[in-house]
Each structure stands twice: as C-alpha cells, then as structure tokens.
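Input record (one chain):
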Amino acid sequence: DPIHMLGSILPALYAIPSRLINPLRPCVVSLGHIEGGSTTNVIPNEVLLEGTIRSHHDDVRQKLWAEVENALRLSTLMGGAYELKINKGYPALYNAPQVNDWMRQTALDLVGEDDVTDMEFGMGAEDFAYMAQAAQGAMFMLGAATPDGVVRHHHTDVFDIDESVIPVGAAVLAETARRFVTGQLP
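The corresponding structure, as predicted from the sequence alone:
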C-alpha cells in the first residue's frame, strides 16, 4: 500500500533540513504535488511525489539529494520500491557584494531611503544564477504589493503584483548600468 508507505516517508523527507543538515546552512525540501489513486475503495499501485530542493551551497544540495533517496528507501523496508528523478535545477544565486552595493546606492538615489529595504537572502531559485556565475552580478527584489495591501505570495493561485512599479525596477537597472559604463561607480 503506497499510501501507507507515504505515511513514513513524508516525515523523513520533511526532517531532512532540520535534522540532517547544519542549521547554519539554509536549505528547503518542499513537496508541492502528491498524487495516488483514483477512487476511494481501491489501493493504488503507486504514489507520485513532486517537489523542490533548494540550498545556497552545492555541497548541501548534494547531501539533500542523497538524504531524499535515503528517505524514499523506507518504501523498500515495507515491500515497496521507488524511482527517484532529480532535475538539478538552477544553481544557487550569489550576489556579488560590490555589484549589490552599486545597485543599492542607485536605488537609494532614485527612490530614497524610505523605499529601500535590506533583506536577508531567501531560498528562491532563479535562472539569473547562471548569468551571475559567468559575470559578477546582483539581483534585487522589487516591492510590488497590490494597493489593497493583501499579501499574495509567489507560487500560489492568488499571486498578483502592482505592475505600475515595474518602471522603478527598470530605472534602477538602467541607471546602475549607465553609472558603470561611464565610470561613475567605485
């Protein structure tokens, strides 16, 4: 019964970041899709799990992949089997401190101190990470909350933004680039 097996596997998966990884090296194991069976009175032959694994460090990512496999091996102790496919996804995004400082200063100059907030790094995955590996770069978050003040988080079915702030983000990027090519940055 793969659904019964899942009852042991889910806690093992969710325990990986908090029990098997150094807490000073942030990581995430999240399941976003579980599918099994099609009716109430038939035990399914299989269960499908899909999710994401994220970390800022490649060695932690490799450990996460290994520990996910260990968690799935629990199915073999109950007479089951598993198949693991990992799409390694984007590399960790690293903001070059100097470029980050340039963009922060440009944003301060353009929109003022009240509208620039320093944030802790997050666990987002972004294809910009490939560009930041090839050349120093930095990514910033553009505050685009809707005017009604209701938070509509990324990756939800209610996600929404205030598109009127997009020109502000474009201006920060363009002005930072202009300052760079004209030698106005330290």
